[in-house]
TrEMBL record:
This is Glutamyl-Q tRNA(Asp) synthetase. Residues 7-272 form the Glutamyl/glutaminyl-tRNA synthetase class Ib catalytic domain. InterPro entries: aa-tRNA-synth_I_CS (IPR001412), Glu/Gln-tRNA-synth (IPR000924), Glu/Gln-tRNA-synth_Ib_cat-dom (IPR020058), GluQ/Sye (IPR049940), Rossmann-like_a/b/a_fold (IPR014729). GO terms for biological process: glutamyl-tRNA aminoacylation. PANTHER family: GLUTAMATE--TRNA LIGASE (PTHR43311), GLUTAMYL-Q TRNA(ASP) SYNTHETASE (PTHR43311:SF1). One of its GO terms (cellular component) is cytosol. Keywords: Aminoacyl-tRNA synthetase, ATP-binding, Ligase, Metal-binding, Nucleotide-binding, Protein biosynthesis, Zinc. GO terms for molecular function: ATP binding; glutamate-tRNA ligase activity. Belongs to the class-I aminoacyl-tRNA synthetase family. SUPFAM superfamilies: Nucleotidylyl transferase. NCBIfam families: PRK05710.1-4.
Length: 281
């Protein structure tokens, strides 16, 4: 059998915090338990918010924690053509359609919300005629491209995947994916030829990832990933969803909330052992 492969894939849109440290340490622990290989992936498809200095900081912080990885480091910003090709395969299969709805229009028409709490897209543009779509595309209306999740599910049928948990020592269990609860998710935008959902499944397959560790906040998103893996003929890894570190507000640590960075803690005199103890390692 081939050696197990894992990956750690932060976004360079800010500095790593303790939540990232926990996720990294879980991934490296799983790699050691499986006698596997771990890769570093830089998920920088958001070229407006992602900065080279944050990428360099990620490398420095991980090295400071005593972690190493196999080469090469994959940069998603260098792979837009590959993601666009995957999207085109879905388009040719009549599974991707243009959507011209604004956020305000979606919020006004939505009935319910997706697992992340965002307004659930009601499928408005799914019902446009080809002539209407062509006219609006030629006119240059703001557009994003959505997966026809219902049609996709009709083609794939029941979807399952394996999960190890709640600890890394547990036996894998079978779960059923429910991508329909996400509605028709966005896979491409006019200014970015991919989305997190699309790029992550393409890259996991490209890097040969066999075991995937991720925070519980991404557990529901796995429904969409398993669906895309089936549609694109890609393998489905074995998943492990680890606990999250919570802040004083009861929510998960996040760059957007200004959670204290590893660099700040290091400047205050913290050691890698201090970080490990703080996150339960």
């Amino acid at each position: 059998m081939s050696r197990p492969i894992l990956r750690f894939a932060p976004s360079p849109n800010g500095y790593l915090h303790l939540g990232h440290a926990l996720s990294a340490l879980v991934t490296w622990k799983a790699t050691a338990m499986l006698d596997g290989t771990v890769y570093l992936r830089i998920e920088d498809i958001d070229i407006q918010r992602c900065k080279p200095e944050f990428t360099q900081a990620i490398v420095e912080d991980l090295e400071w924690l005593g972690l190493s990885w196999a080469e090469p480091v994959l940069l998603q910003s260098e792979r837009f053509d590959i993601y666009a090709e995957a999207a085109n395969r879905l388009r040719q299969a009549d599974l991707l359609y243009p959507c011209f709805c604004s956020r305000a229009e979606i919020a006004a028409a939505a009935q319910g919300s997706d697992p992340d709490g965002a307004p659930l897209y009601p499928g408005t543009c799914r019902h446009l005629s080809n002539a209407e779509r062509i006219e609006r595309l030629e006119r240059g209306d703001p557009v994003q491209f959505r997966l026809d999740t219902g049609k996709a599910r009709d083609r794939t049928g029941m979807l399952t995947y394996s999960v190890i948990g709640p600890t890394l020592n547990d036996r894998p269990q079978i779960r059923y994916a429910r991508p329909e609860r996400w509605g028709d998710v966005v896979l491409q935008r006019k200014d970015t030829p991919t989305s997190y959902h699309l790029s992550v499944v393409v890259d996991d397959a490209a890097q040969g990832v066999t075991h995937l560790t991720r925070g519980r906040d991404l557990e529901a998103a796995t429904d969409i990933h398993v669906l895309l893996q089936m549609l694109l003929g890609l393998p489905t890894p074995i998943y492990h969803f680890h606990r999250l570190l919570l802040g004083d507000d009861g929510g998960k640590l996040a760059k957007s909330k200004g959670s204290q960075s590893l660099r700040d803690l290091r400047a205050q005199g913290w050691t890698p052992d201090d970080v490990r103890r703080a996150v339960g390692f």
